[in-house]
Write a structure and sequence with these properties.
Blueprint lengths: L1 H9 L1 H48 L7 H13 L5 H12 L20 H9 L16 H13 L19 E3 L4 E4 L8 H8 L3 H10 L1 H10 L7 H13 L9 E3 L6 E2 L2 H4 L3 H8 L2 H25 L1
Antiparallel strand pairs: 1-2, 2-3, 3-4
Amino acid sequence: MSENSSENLSDPTFESELRAAAGRTRNEKKPLAENKPVIVALIIVGGLIAVLVAYLLLTAEPEPPVVSQSVAIKEAPVLVEPEPVAETEATITPSVAAEPSEPAPSAFVLPRLDDSDQLIRDGVLSLTREEAINSWLSPAELVRKFVVLVDNAANGNVAKDAVAVLTLKEPFPAIPVDDNVYIMDEAGYARYDSVTRIFTSLDSRRSVEFYHLLRPLFKQAYEELGYTDKSFEDVVFQAIGRILETPVLEAPVRLVRPVVMYRFEDPRLEALSPMQKQLVRMGPRNTRAIQAKVGEMARELRLVMSQQG
């Protein structure tokens, strides 16, 4: 028997069967051991998913109870037209306004002709820096006096009452040549230098604008003289024409004195209007300066009248 046992133990077939049996035993026990990690992983993943779902359900914000309300809110601005800005301000102003709105600036109102002297004085003083012009503005009824002065100048005359304030105290100087002929003393021209300086210092543009502002007063004063069929501007330009037509004499001016008053020896000069003779007696330099200023004012007057009517 011992021999059979040793033979069986040494038999190769028997050994292979034993190995096969052992292999089957190991294969039957392996599936559980090998699948255990997979099952554990699935359990863990499933737990994580469950935890995540629970967290989302517990922490999520509730949805609006009525969906149509949110839609209505979004559509309302589109359906309703915005109110104009002016209406919005008008609606807000009554509840907020604490101060009354400033009134629109009123149009300039001219004073009555009888009460216009102060306006004339203030206006003319703003047209020049020559303080000496104050003496020209001392008389009353300045508008009426200016109208009379212009009307006389247009006719070639000098309104002595209107310009009495400008009357010179010095006598008219003349140098005798013989018993009957004299020469106008050129030193006497200087007597009119201050008048020329003050007049030419006026701002032409602003002077014309000031005149245009006062047109109704000048028109009224002119009509008081009995003129109703002619505009005062026509008279102004007629007077300007007279001034510009006055000759400028550079040579010594010869005079005669048949009785008391001096006269020009040249008949052409003696034929000049009284206003033009006065300009000649002022000397060539003053005459040219006044003519230049008057011409400048005439151009400005035409320009302002064309622009403002």
